Amino acid sequence: MASYFEGGILLGPSALGKSSKFLTTVFPPRSLTVLDTLANLGLIFFLFLVGLELDPKSLKRTGKRALSIALAGITLPFIFGIGTSFALRSTIADGVSKAPFLVFMGVALSITAFPVLARILAEIKLLTTDVGKIALSAAAVNDVAAWILLALAVALSGDGNSPLTSLWVFLAGCGFVLFCIFVVQPGIKLIAKRCPEGEPVNELYVCCTLGIVLAASFVTDLIGIHALFGAFVIGVIFPKEGNFANALVEKVEDLVSGLFLPLYFVSSGLKTDVATIQGAQSWGLLVLVIFNACFGKIVGTVLVSLYCKVPLDESLALGFLMNTKGLVELIVLNIGKDRGVLNDQIFAIMVLMAIFTTFMTTPLVLAVYKPGKSLAKGDYQNRTIEETKKSNKPLRLMFCFQSIMNIPTIVNLIEASRGSNRKETLSVYAMHLMELSERSSAVLMAHKVRKNGLPFWNKDKTGNNSSSDMVVVAFEAFRRLSRVSVRPMTAISAMATIHEDICQSAERKSTAMVILPFHKHVRLDRTWETTRNDYRWINKKVMEEAPCSVAILVDRGLGGTTRVASSDFSLVITVLFFGGNDDREALAFAMRMAEHPGISLTVVRFIPSEEFKPENVKLEIIEDQASCSGDTKLIDIEAISDLKAMIEEQESSLSNSDSESLIVYEEKIVKCYKEVFEVIKECSKSNLFLVGKSPEGSVASGLHVERSDTPELGPIGNLLTASENVSTTASVLVVQQYTASRVLPVVGVTKDITTEKSLVEDSESR
């Protein structure tokens, strides 16, 4: 948005518009009326969207800390704004109305742009942090107070000089708000109830709502406030729950942000003439305005934050964040200019102040606050399941999911990972991956943070059936029925950088493994369909940069029946063990699952016979990775010994009953790869295969894998998911163990496949 406004300034009298020939050619006088009309129409719908972002219920739940910060962020800069107005009136603003000018300057310096702040928080990955939540709550309170004060300023700047006129405007405005709350809101709620979740919204309802917005704007303009306030009030009272609000944002936002708002920026830029700031006095006043705006907002916020026992770095970050101005500031200034309260020189000074304060926010916040600091090495020890098993510490897993369709599978896999009935042996973090696109609305982002942020469980008993609530309900039910701590999280980021959120969260939570969904899903005819190719690049990046072990879950119906902590829960799991770090990690995870009474585990170890000879295959193989070193073989033998000891322990505990051991260990001596395929086919009735991404040893090094577009699954994963040699309907969990200095192998992937895109491009706007 800032780039649009800069373009508008360049087109205006500050730069290109100095040429009268350019102005009359590009913007002839007869076109300005149409331009202003479209710009104001877009602004009306934008203020409606801003109102949608503010949830009155969330304002009631605002904590004392956020409320105190918001009040300090309004009061001190408002006082500084009044002081600044005296300095301006005595110099370059001689002749303007005193009372409206005082209030306008106070509002201009104290306002915080909620939509701009939400976007900045999302882009610098602070939206779901404590600082982000406090900033959003405080900005919401600040926004409401500022718009009320602005309405007062507009009422004072009316054409009539009589106090009765201002009183009429104030009372009529209050009556309008009450009418919207008690008459309009129930009608909109009836419309919203007719738009159930998962069904398309009737276009008639959308047109009816937009008509209500325009009618409300007409009424407030008739009263004498401003057309924008009517749209804003309708947005505030609009029901935020359900499908209708989200559908309305989806339909309106593209048109507003893509067409109408750029026109508004052009219109504002044409009114801005930086050349009016001339002489030392004018530039000194610009410095004074910027200083007062920053000092009042930042110092007021920081002092109250410190008083509320917020750490210094977080207090400074909150101060800089609350100083965000942006588009909302420009709206206030344009209203003041249209009302004759601000002259051209003051308008130009205030515009430059808004641009400066907004652009300084991101670099200053990043300079003083770094939430993604790496943990000390001693604080994060169990980075693999194998290490966690040896240390006998509680297991921490992070499951990432894209939509509610992934939930049944995740719940079943969590249940399988629960292991024995010992208390507090498993902690699970369920991270919802949400894209931050160029057009993502702050209302959607802030709504998700309120639903999935701290506190994570939604206490609002409204009966809302949104997908966010369904996710929360599913995990809450599982938490209550099992002894597993499940904590939902939300990652809101661009597709190009969302892997950073995953890796940073895994490090902060000290997880032993991150489990990612495969970028394809199975259709009803059992063929593969790509969910979204961007998820493949996310998986690839996480496997390269994760601070712990990583697994990719290829789901073929593991969550077909959602059984939560049920005594009937049962799974047949098979581990294909060739050797190496990744295979040991898969085996350690499987042994953890085998502690569950409903899990049947079969471990198949492939051993080459003396006659075994690798076939000539078109594979790019790195020799020291393809064959096991002596140390690796010894560790593999130790892992198998632990498995045998576990089997003996289980058999001894079942010796007094007729039950058979649920863990089976088999060694298969193979002469060629056809025998490997035959052994795998014998296990095709399993529910889940656990395999290593990069198996080692002479058998694995020469496995023939047909050309594949999914090298992240490794040779065995591709064999189980895409090869005609092995036919199975089982799900597959491909495991990569974390190693401190891991060099990614290229085993089992044709040379052509290794040339991939190294960077994920920003996903296009929907």
UniProtKB/TrEMBL annotation:
Membrane topology: Multi-pass membrane protein
Residue ranges the record marks as coiled coil: none
UniProt key word Endoplasmic reticulum: no
Protein keywords: Ion transport, Membrane, Potassium, Potassium transport, Transmembrane, Transmembrane helix, Transport
The species this protein was found in: Camelina sativa (False flax)
Main location: membrane
Domain Cation/H(+) antiporter C-terminal: 570-740
Localization annotation: Membrane
Gene encoding the protein: LOC104720155
Cation/H(+) antiporter central domain mapped to chain residues: 425-566
Pfam families (UniProt xref): CHX17_2nd (PF23256), CHX17_C (PF23259), Na_H_Exchanger (PF00999)
Protein family: Belongs to the monovalent cation:proton antiporter 2 (CPA2) transporter (TC 2.A.37) family. CHX (TC 2.A.37.4) subfamily.
Protein name: Cation/H(+) antiporter 17-like
Transmembrane region(s): 37-54, 66-88, 100-122, 134-156, 168-192, 204-235, 283-304, 316-335, 347-369
Cation/H+ exchanger transmembrane domain location: 8-365
